[in-house]
Write a structure and sequence with these properties.
- There is one protein chain.
- By secondary structure, the chain is an alpha+beta fold.
- The chain contains 22 helices and 32 strands.
- The chain is globular, with a radius of gyration of 29 Å.
- Helices cover 30% and strands 24% of the residues.
- Residues 444-467 are annotated as: Disordered.
């Protein structure tokens, strides 16, 4: 990290951070405590502690930070706006799901120094090359292990370090490496000697085998050798000569001409080009000019919740996090609040409440930070007509021209506009009086309020509860005649008392904010084919959607080629757990709403699908799901016209520097790799390697797994590393999920992500990928 430190010398802001500053760490209106903050000499670690003697200190790395917000940009600091001026306040935002750090400096200058200095450090880290990053990582370990801080490592410190790094090595082998690295023969390792020791430790025999296979002289790969490798192994025949030349120029550290040494070859395999996901899929590459209903849309459920649904904390932070992760549809659950101000929370529970106005302000500020493409506000409206008018005022006043208030000019009423046409726009999904036709027809005699049937998640969730009650009491279940008008259906009320389907009054002002996403009740595929307008959206609980899928998968796909559908988690998931979004994407459902606040398989799949296409939140559905006569049914994928099944062969070769999961002293990972296919029911599958005892540092498997894939266009591949445990559930170590179609073939590294989707460098897997047609 010497280059990093050199680039920073003479910077006044960093100078004062290195000296250290006393600031207030703030958690609530009443919890405001002084802490001493100081940047460490490595210019990478920030250290802070209480002024009280005997209290332990805390540290975090600049690499853990996602951003710095100036002023009152968190709920806590907003609540203290009367006490601390904005120019003394700032918020450090961490990656993943770690809580923010709200700080108040003693002066505006000190706050400015920390804001600018931290941003500069983050930029320097971003611009570091892979090699510098690795040196940085090795240096961090050296500092952790050099217990007596003398800048040298003795043999015992080295052994302790290996255990910290997840290596179980016998003493003899460790000692021989130590002696080889101790070139100064002092019985200790200086930092350059430690780097040498580390390089011997991480010798990649697996990559050396590949290198030797293609090298003419065993010392280097000539440009011609490299071309052969690219053609035969990586299946990158296009301009192989040009590509080989670029690899030599980019990754070869020595002055070799027209050749790459083992070090350069390893650098290439560890880079984005050598990674399992095709870098061309990572930028914006899809057509974004199709109607909205032709895209999968990254969507969040109960966006305001930070944890579970019964007592969880509601927070504007939930919206900021979802939007900055590229989410394009957020949910706003609105209820009447005190002083005429609508509030947002999970109704009839003990979750805390936030102001609707604050949510709209957060959306205004963060909607287009991660993506320029449209954001949909899915409004769950429980407010009186008066407070609905207030909602409309806030939406119009705060969002201004970004709020879409009328159909796009020149678009007519032919169909939904495209993400491209709606760039920078915010759409409201909610109930509406009448349709778009009246808007365009220009009727003047508009009523001030209208009636709509009261369908919402709350009612749906009660419906689920009452069904369970009914079956528990073994009473007769009354099936309703589908031909009867909807208003006659008895619907259980929140109190559990059955009543006629209630009518809800809607204010004209709020209704007018709804253009292309009018919420309507789903009355069956036939009904929707005959009567549903293109701008009408139906919502399904996961169980309802599953039933439609099983009974009429093909019809569901067809319905979703014309209309938007939203699917949300069942009301029984009070722990904010998620269902698998894959089964809903298989039916072409666009708005599959997940609890973004809950890490796990469902969010891994969501991140895996939406990481591609520049993370813009819109992914074009396969062509056979967009055509009216596509005839695709996820339950019978072999019946479609362009059916071409493929076979995926994955050889899991090795793992590198897997993180420790068990904090217990001396416990070392026993890793195994599971590869999962998520797709149409016929493609769902998982297989795993053996587990390797006591080696998270450089385990080697050479195990081959094979999968048949019937609908490659919908399949996602998830690589999961677990710590094997014979007595209890395996512990999660790391994962990476990507679309099957974006896999690069040949020898590839997979850079693993942590449970909450952030990178854990330098943890990786090394695999060989081959895709063949099913014979």
């Amino acid at each position: 990290s010497n280059n990093l430190i050199l680039g920073i010398q003479g910077d006044d802001n960093l100078g004062s951070m290195l000296v250290g500053t006393v600031m207030r760490k703030v958690k609530s209106r009443t919890w405001k405590k002084q802490r001493y903050f100081k940047l460490q000499e490595d210019c990478m670690t920030i250290w802070y502690k209480s002024k009280k003697a005997g209290k332990p200190h805390s540290t975090f790395s600049v690499g853990d930070l996602e951003g710095v917000r100036e002023g009152h940009q968190s709920e806590v600091l907003l609540s203290l706006a009367d006490e601390f001026p904005p120019d003394r306040c700032f918020t450090l935002v961490f990656r993943g799901r770690r809580g923010n750090l709200d700080l108040v400096a003693d002066s505006a200058d000190e706050a400015r120094s920390w804001v600018r200095g931290t941003r500069k450090l983050m930029e320097s880290l971003e611009s570091m090359g892979e090699r510098e990053r690795l040196d940085q990582w090795i240096g961090d370990w050296f500092k952790k292990a050099d217990k007596n801080k003398d800048g040298r490592m003795n043999f015992k410190e080295t052994q302790d370090l290996l255990r910290m790094m997840n290596v179980d090595m016998n003493e003899q082998h460790c000692h021989s490496l130590f002696t080889m690295a101790d070139r100064s023969q002092t019985g200790t390792l200086l930092d350059e000697e430690f780097v040498l020791f580390y390089k011997m430790l991480t010798k990649r025999d697996d990559v050396m085998r590949v290198f030797q296979d293609f090298s003419g002289d065993g010392q280097k790969l000539s440009a011609a050798d490299l071309e052969d490798f690219l053609r035969e192994e990586q299946l990158e025949a296009e301009d192989a000569a040009g590509h080989a030349a670029r690899i030599i120029e980019t990754y070869e550290p020595s002055d070799q001409l027209n050749a790459v040494t083992f070090d350069g070859f390893l650098m290439y395999l560890g880079s984005a080009e050598g990674s399992i996901q095709d870098p061309r899929w990572c930028g914006l590459f899809q057509d974004l000019d199709q109607p909205l209903c032709h895209y999968f849309i990254s969507s969040s459920h109960n966006t305001y919740l930070m944890e579970d649904q019964l007592r969880g904390q509601s927070s504007v932070e939930g919206y900021i996090r979802a939007l900055t992760r590229g989410c394009r549809c957020v949910e706003v659950d609105c209820w009447d609040g005190p002083n005429g101000e609508p509030i947002v929370y999970h109704g009839h529970t003990f979750t805390s409440k936030i102001l609707f106005r604050d949510v709209v302000q957060a959306v205004d500020k963060y909607a287009f930070k991660a993506s320029d493409y449209p954001v949909i506000l899915s409004i769950e409206n429980h407010c009186s007509v008066e407070q609905q008018r207030t909602m409309a005022q806030h939406l119009n006043h705060i969002l201004g021209d970004a709020l879409l208030r009328s159909p796009l000019e020149g678009k007519g009423l032919t169909g939904l506009p495209s993400p491209e046409e709606l760039k920078g726009k915010i759409l409201l999904k909610a109930k509406k009086i009448g349709g778009l036709e009246e808007r365009v027809g220009g009727l003047t005699e508009d009523p001030l309020t209208g009636e709509v049937s009261d369908e919402d998640e709350a009612a749906e969730i009660d419906n689920e509860h009452s069904h369970r009650e009914t079956f528990r009491r073994k009473t007769k279940v009354v099936y309703l005649d589908p031909c009867q008008p909807l208003t006659a259906c008895p619907v259980p009320h929140r109190g559990g008392v059955s009543m006629q389907k209630s009518k809800q009054h809607l204010s004209k002002e709020l209704s007018d904010c709804v253009v292309y996403c009018k919420s309507v009740h789903f009355s069956g595929f036939k009904h929707s084919r005959l009567h549903q307008k293109f701008y009408e959206v139906s919502s399904f609980t996961e169980s309802k959607a599953r039933k439609q899928l099983r009974d009429a998968g093909g019809e569901f796909v067809l319905h979703n080629s014309r209309q938007l559908s939203r699917v949300y988690p069942s009301g029984f998931r009070t722990d904010s757990s998620n269902f698998s979004p894959q089964e809903m994407w298989n039916a072409g459902c666009q708005i599959v709403a997940l609890n973004f606040q809950t890490a796990g398989e469902a969010m891994d799949l969501n991140d895996g699908l939406f990481r591609q296409n520049g993370g813009c939140g819109y992914i074009l559905k396969p062509s056979f799901m967009r055509q009216p006569g596509g005839g695709f049914n996820p339950e019978a994928p072999q019946n479609r016209e362009s059916y071409l099944p493929q076979v995926l062969h994955i050889q899991v070769i090795s793992g590198q520097q897997l993180p420790k999961v068990n904090i217990k002293e001396g416990s070392i990972v026993d890793p195994l790799v599971r590869v999962e296919i998520h797709g149409v029911p016929l493609d769902q599958g998982k297989q795993e390697t053996r587990y390797i005892e006591n080696n998270g540092f450089n385990p080697v498997w050479y195990d081959t797994l094979r999968f048949t894939i019937h609908t490659p266009e919908l399949a996602l591949v998830r690589f999961l590393v677990e710590d094997y445990d014979k007595t209890s559930r395996n512990d999660f170590v790391g994962q990476y999920t990507l679309p099957f179609c974006s896999l690069q073939q040949g020898y590839r590294h997979i850079h693993l992500l942590s449970r909450d989707g952030t990178r854990i460098p330098p943890a990786s897997l090394f695999v060989h990928v081959r895709i063949t047609e099913l014979a």
